[in-house]
Amino acid sequence: MSQILIMGAGGFGTALAVMAHKTGHQVTMWSPFADEVSRLNNQRENTGLLPGVTIPLEITVTGSLGCLPLQDLVILATPSYAVRSAANTLSEANLPKGMPVVCVAKGLEAGTNKTLSDILDEELRQNPSVMLSGPSHAEEVARGVPTSIVAASRNRSAAELVQDMLMNETLRIYISDDVLGVEYGGAVKNVIALAAGILDGLNGGDNTKAALMTRGIAEISRLGVAMGAKAETFAGLSGMGDLIVTCSSNHSRNRRCGILIGQGTKPEQAVKEIGMTVEGYFCTKAAYELSVKYKIDMPIVREIHAVLYQNIPVQQAIRNLMERPKRHESEAIWLLTR
What we know:
Elements: E1 3-7, H1 11-23, E2 26-30, H2 34-43, E3 60-62, E4 73-76, H3 83-92, E5 101-103, H4 116-123, E6 129-133, H5 138-141, E7 147-152, H6 156-166, E8 171-176, H7 179-201, H8 206-226, H9 237-248, H10 253-262, H11 267-274, H12 279-293, H13 299-309, H14 314-322, H15 331-337
């Protein structure tokens, strides 16, 4: 039995806590919010995010990091915007040197457009980071629905440790050394999921969504490869796999936000109505800025950025995409790999 500390008591943090407990580990969930700690301890259920999923009494829910020296693994289960502050908190609490830090957030840092592994490497230089990504809705992980994900790290031993500790009969974990590929796939697919939701809000067709997802993964691949990732990673779980589930599932807050926008709700209001972090809304800006800076062709990202931040009507954005100049389907891939 290992000691696992989960930083963040949201939906996915709770799901991981329940799953790790079932696997036989001693789990502590940490939250910086006293009211959240009190509510979870009293109700033993994350009623707003995972109704019906009981948090076993053996799982400690706390606002203290006094247990940190006893831990074997730390998992950051915060939204992407809170990863740097959570890493700072760990650093100030004297995180033991060499202890692996797992991050399950998916996104790019607003303002810097840095990956989350970049942030962890900056803030926790003496600790190997592992990025955990793939098609894994909290609602299903918590209930033991068979799920496969990827643990990516530049430190193979750290990735294998995560694989050994967390893999069980309902969670299969592959390892990868392509940290950038896994991160860009997990982050930018949220942008495409927003677009998929917009199409659903417009009562769009299956043909349209299939085209969106296929060309979406092409754009994600172009960005990732240009930033140093491996092209083949985007055909895997953290690329196409995560894209499929996020564009298709009712669990996807990005897709649900897109549906509201497609039905006529203003983007800012749609984000508020979801009531949880809509990573795609923020990642759209970061991905667009990277595409401009590095001259990467990302027309879907460009049009979603125009819808979210420039008040372009969604029907106009669709026309802009459909009326683009003629292209060879594999032209961009050939240019990147020749």
